[in-house]
């Protein structure tokens, strides 16, 4: 057809082609219903919306809410965007963590401790190996986490665990098994997230209680992505896959170490490695081996 070669149609074709190229290079986020199911508050407290692109958790005086992944992972790079409970969120805790099950479980934690309006959230992190935690590090954020979505990531591979906020590494737990320090590598983990009442400890150590007149409290999630080795029936999807992807080999280079130090110097408010009052019997051995500021 002659009209197909008119200049406006040509540019439409060119535009369409450019669009195809650019969209094919974007890693599309999964739909929440593909990866997760609601485990708590499925009545109306937890919802998958926008065709599975958005998930909301809420908390009121009836219930909190939670979801978990169908898949178990044995190493993963997990990214999720979260917009935290706005306004007076004191006493609420929003969590996002990887965990195995059983009495000597492994766990990698992000927990967001709410606050009264205008006061900062605390980002609380922890690493459990074989049932033992006590590796808390806490941070303030350099932005208001309730105003927009921000990306929170866990990189867990054989070399290290890295916590990232908007791609900025904030914490690294290295695999130092060669020094006798345990590292999570034998137990597959699921991804969990929840919003619940923790006003006995969360805000100013439990001094500030939830103001239920502000409920429901709602946190929103979008753009979940997992680059992962999926564990199923005793085998890992990575065993048969020689091309594991860059995430599997990633450690922190010199520039990343500088970024971590910037965050830790300016935003870290608690570090188990320096809490000699709490750990009178001695500071954890990994603290001596890792470079801390
Ligand atoms: C809440 O704000 C207070 C300051 O009023 C601050 O000391 C505290 O660290 C903030 N965050 C939490 C979760 O308590």
From TrEMBL:
<dbReference type="InterPro" id="IPR008263">
    <property type="entry name" value="GH16_AS"/>
</dbReference>
<dbReference type="InterPro" id="IPR010713">
    <property type="entry name" value="XET_C"/>
</dbReference>
<dbReference type="Pfam" id="PF00722">
    <property type="entry name" value="Glyco_hydro_16"/>
</dbReference>
<keyword id="KW-1015">Disulfide bond</keyword>
<dbReference type="GO" id="GO:0071555">
    <property type="term" value="P:cell wall organization"/>
</dbReference>
<feature type="active site" description="Proton donor">
    <location>
        <position position="111"/>
    </location>
</feature>
<comment type="similarity">
    <text>Belongs to the glycosyl hydrolase 16 family.</text>
</comment>
<dbReference type="InterPro" id="IPR013320">
    <property type="entry name" value="ConA-like_dom_sf"/>
</dbReference>
<keyword id="KW-0808">Transferase</keyword>
<dbReference type="InterPro" id="IPR044791">
    <property type="entry name" value="Beta-glucanase/XTH"/>
</dbReference>
<dbReference type="InterPro" id="IPR000757">
    <property type="entry name" value="Beta-glucanase-like"/>
</dbReference>
<keyword id="KW-0134">Cell wall</keyword>
<keyword id="KW-0052">Apoplast</keyword>
<feature type="active site" description="Nucleophile">
    <location>
        <position position="107"/>
    </location>
</feature>
<keyword id="KW-0964">Secreted</keyword>
<dbReference type="GO" id="GO:0004553">
    <property type="term" value="F:hydrolase activity, hydrolyzing O-glycosyl compounds"/>
</dbReference>
<dbReference type="GO" id="GO:0016762">
    <property type="term" value="F:xyloglucan:xyloglucosyl transferase activity"/>
</dbReference>
<keyword id="KW-0961">Cell wall biogenesis/degradation</keyword>
<keyword id="KW-0326">Glycosidase</keyword>
<comment type="function">
    <text>Catalyzes xyloglucan endohydrolysis (XEH) and/or endotransglycosylation (XET). Cleaves and religates xyloglucan polymers, an essential constituent of the primary cell wall, and thereby participates in cell wall construction of growing tissues.</text>
</comment>
<dbReference type="GO" id="GO:0042546">
    <property type="term" value="P:cell wall biogenesis"/>
</dbReference>
<keyword id="KW-0732">Signal</keyword>
<protein>
    <recommendedName>
        <fullName>Xyloglucan endotransglucosylase/hydrolase</fullName>
        <ecNumber>2.4.1.207</ecNumber>
    </recommendedName>
</protein>
<dbReference type="InterPro" id="IPR016455">
    <property type="entry name" value="XTH"/>
</dbReference>
<keyword id="KW-0378">Hydrolase</keyword>
<dbReference type="GO" id="GO:0048046">
    <property type="term" value="C:apoplast"/>
</dbReference>
<feature type="domain" description="GH16">
    <location>
        <begin position="3"/>
        <end position="221"/>
    </location>
</feature>
<feature type="glycosylation site" description="N-linked (GlcNAc...) asparagine">
    <location>
        <position position="115"/>
    </location>
</feature>
<dbReference type="Pfam" id="PF06955">
    <property type="entry name" value="XET_C"/>
</dbReference>
<dbReference type="GO" id="GO:0010411">
    <property type="term" value="P:xyloglucan metabolic process"/>
</dbReference>
<keyword id="KW-0325">Glycoprotein</keyword>
């Amino acid at each position: 057809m002659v009209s197909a070669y008119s200049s406006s149609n040509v540019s439409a074709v060119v535009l369409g082609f450019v669009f195809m190229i650019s969209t094919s290079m974007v890693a599309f986020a999964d739909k929440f219903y593909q990866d997760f199911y609601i485990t708590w508050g499925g009545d109306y407290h937890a919802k998958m919306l926008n065709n599975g692109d958005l998930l909301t958790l809420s908390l009121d005086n009836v219930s909190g809410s939670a979801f978990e992944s169908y898949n178990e992972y044995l190493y993963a790079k997990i990214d999720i965007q979260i917009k935290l409970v706005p306004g007076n969120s004191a006493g609420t805790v929003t969590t996002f963590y990887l965990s195995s099950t059983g009495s000597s479980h492994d766990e990698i934690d992000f927990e967001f401790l709410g606050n009264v309006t205008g006061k900062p959230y605390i980002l609380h992190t922890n690493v459990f190996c074989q049932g033992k935690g006590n590796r808390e590090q806490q941070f303030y954020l350099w932005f208001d986490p309730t105003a927009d979505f921000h990306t929170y990531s866990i990189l867990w591979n054989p070399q290290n665990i890295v916590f990232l906020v908007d791609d900025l590494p904030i914490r690294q737990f290295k695999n130092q098994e060669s020094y006798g320090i345990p590292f999570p590598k034998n137990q597959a983990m699921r991804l969990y997230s929840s919003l619940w009442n923790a006003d006995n400890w969360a805000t100013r150590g439990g001094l500030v209680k939830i103001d239920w007149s502000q409920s429901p409290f709602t946190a929103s999630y979008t753009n979940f992505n997992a680059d992962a080795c999926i564990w199923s029936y005793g085998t890992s999807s990575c065993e048969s896959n020689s091309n594991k992807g860059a995430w599997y080999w990633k450690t922190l280079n010199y520039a990343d170490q500088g970024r971590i130090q910037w965050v830790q110097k300016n935003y870290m408010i608690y570090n188990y490695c320096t809490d000699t009052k709490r750990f009178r019997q001695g500071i954890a051995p990994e603290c001596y081996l890792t470079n801390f500021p």
